[in-house]
Amino acid sequence: MRHTLRKKRDERMPESIPPRRPGRVRAPSDDTQTGAFPVVRRRPLRTLNSNATRVRLVTSVLVALMCALLGFGYAVQVRNNQSSYQSLSEEELVRVLDETSNQVDKLEERKSQLNQQLTSIKSAADKQKEAARIAQQNEQSSGILSGRLPAQGRGVVVTVTEDSDRVDASTMFNLIEELRNAGAEVISFNDVRVVTNTYLLDTRTGLQCDHSKLQSPYVVKAIGDPDSLQNAIQIAGGVGSRIKVQFHASVSVEQSDSVRIDQVRRVQDYQYAKPVE
User: Fold this and answer.
1) Dist CA 6 CA 71 (whole Å)
2) Per DSSP, what are the bridge partners of residue 189?
3) Residue 42 neighbours by CB distance under 10 Å
4) Inter-axis angle of helices 226-234 and 90-123, to 10 degrees?
5) Strands, E assignment, the chain
6) CB 117: neighbour CB atoms within 10 A?
7) How far is CA 240 from CA 81, 154, 183, in A?
8) Model confidence over 156-210: pLDDT tens digits?
9) Average pLDDT score over residue span 149-158
10) Where are the coiled-coil regions (predicted)?
């Protein structure tokens, strides 16, 4: 009797539930019986972090390489400048310093002029009228520099008179270049207006300047700062001293507040050079 009751009671009791395995809890959609895809875990972004680190490393290497190249180039330039200046005399160093200062002053003056023109264009009520005025001003400046228009102003008059020896063309060309380096804006050589393509040649009777034959005395007029122009000719060891010592010629430099240059040049027709549009 007891055995029968125990058997019936065991039949009514539910089966024991097996214990769950430790690990990830299976989502409802992860059941293989439903046919749904299993849930996939997201991987950490290790690839992006590694690429960013590699880019930063490459960038740092390139920046360091560029800095090293710039430092090397600067050192080479400084060494070359020092070696070239060490071979110059004291008079030549003074002349180079004066020429550099004059060029810097001219660039600063030109910069100030352009800034004033830009300001006047922006502030002018009639911009077209102001632009026309500035265009006319620039036309006059370019006409003077190119030799198309006469000019006058402060400057010097250099006179070279030959004695027994003849001054060659290269020495007179050096005299003109010294005046240019000293800040001369307009130069004339006897009856010839000196421009960028002016040349000098030696002839049997004297010098030839741009198809014009010239004879002593040679008169060179230059418009610019009178003190700078005079120092460029009369500096110790300069072109004036070489003309006196080498050719036994007399060189005189006279400053003037009104140097007038009436010689003009015809506008050159350029065959190859064209303006940039």
Assistant:
1) 100
2) 192, 220
3) 5
4) 160
5) 151-161, 186-189, 192-194, 200-202, 207-209, 212-214, 218-223, 250-261
6) 16
7) 27, 21, 17
8) 999 999 988 899 999 999 999 999 999 999 999 999 999 888 889 998 888 999 8
9) 93
10) 90-131
Side-by-side strand order, sheet with 207-209: 200-202, 207-209, 212-214
> Which tokens hold the place of 60?
């740092």
Residue 34 to residue 158: CA distance in whole angstroms: 110
CA nearest 247: which of 182, 190, 170, 163?
Answer: 163
- C-alpha span between 116 and 20 (Å, rounded): 89
pLDDT at 218 over 60: yes
Per-residue tokens: 272: 């190859």
Among 177, 17, 8, which residue's Cα sits nearest to residue 189?
A: 177
* Structure token digits, residue 224: 């610019």
Find the Cα–Cα–Cα–Cα dihedral 76, 77, 82, 83, rounded to 10°: 60
